[in-house]
Amino acid sequence: MSHGIQTSQILDSHIQLLTRLYQDIGEEPLHGIRQAVEGDLDGIVAEFYDEMLREPGSDAFLSHDLVRQRLRYTLAQWVRELFTPREPDAVPAFVQRQLEVGRVHARINVPMHMVNLGGRFLKRDILTRVHREHDGDLDRLIAVCELIDASIALINESYLGDQMVAERQSQALKMHAVSQNLAIECERLRSDLLDWLRRFMTRLYQQDQPALTPADSVRQSDFALWLHHKADLLFQQEQEIAKLKQQLAAIEHASERAIEVRKQGLTQGFFEQVEALNQGVTRANWLLAELVSHTLEMDGGRDPLTRLFNRRFLHTILQRETQVCIRHGGRFALLLVDLDHFKQLNDRHGHDAGDRVLCQVAEALSSQIRAGDFVFRYGGEEFLVVLSDISPENAQAVADKIRRGVRELVINAGDATIRVTASIGLALHDGHPDYSRAIGNADRALYAAKAAGRDRVVLADDLKADTADA
Length: 470
Prior knowledge:
The protein is α+β, with helices and mostly antiparallel strands. The chain folds into three domains: 173 residues, Globins (Globin-like); 115 residues; 159 residues, Alpha-Beta Plaits.
């Protein structure tokens, strides 16, 4: 039996169950339950939120102000809807809304036990109110339990389905890194690390009192950005990646010690730190080469035309970026890049010329980003760029650089010379655990860039400011 048929049968089973439940309970008991709940709904929501916040780990997805503000309203709406009488033809839409709740919980990576714990808190608080208002009416108490259990079961069904898909995609992404491209990237990263060492050593020997600025730190190198934002997604060997991260920390420590000792002159201690730094970089390069040589890659998860990632792994990558930002306090940015008047270009020059344009634009995008960033073929003529751990100012600069780079492209198509422009919507992750908000913000910014005349970058935050001013 196929997964699609199984899913359809499970969905039908839930619809039938809830239809029977609402019919068996009846309108009058449901109105009584809702009346009891409505009398103290703000208290129920407040108690739920307070108790959930006391649970270890809940701050990752509940502490954000936007979540708090929306949670109070959406939870109250969920409770009201659950105890509202409904006809059989209204049940399928209700079921779909519960499934969407599960998908949202999966997307922001709320642990399953927290979902179930929240259900327990709600059931206890609602039962307490109904018991008090209706003198322990057993039928109403049973109705509360059955409706909450049925709804949580639907949420869990959807949650597990999305989590299974996400896990499969995560594993597939690790298995589908292209060996040739990965080997080239590995060599570039090794070269980058050696180049960092050369620049650092030059400063050490030229300056008597060198100071380490954040820009000089090895953690700002392409190698470090790649290691923290991309390596875990491309490789199965978690232990080797952990060793690389430990080696990076050792290099950072050795560089800091070398600066401190250098202030005392060219002493034996200084030369010992220089040797430790050299050994650290050499070992990191060796570990990186071993990591690639021991990985079996298969080509896949990529757009066959541009060789960029397709949307298959977008969820996996954005979920990880969101978790990294929440954990460490950084921000990532999304650039939604759309080629202007691409349909007319295809109609005028043909699809082969259009494909050539897409390939050259893909190369231009890839050349403008760092090792820890990602580029996706998002749609027909749309690309999505994920800029890891970046400031708003630098994200704006990258977006402007990409726009200019596309504008400067000259594409030969037979006897014709083609030039294109791009509109870009830029959105920064605002700390919210649901990354789909950032995608939506980038999409709205892109729409605004198109409406404003194309060939420009629009920042989503500017749209919010304009709305507030209005």
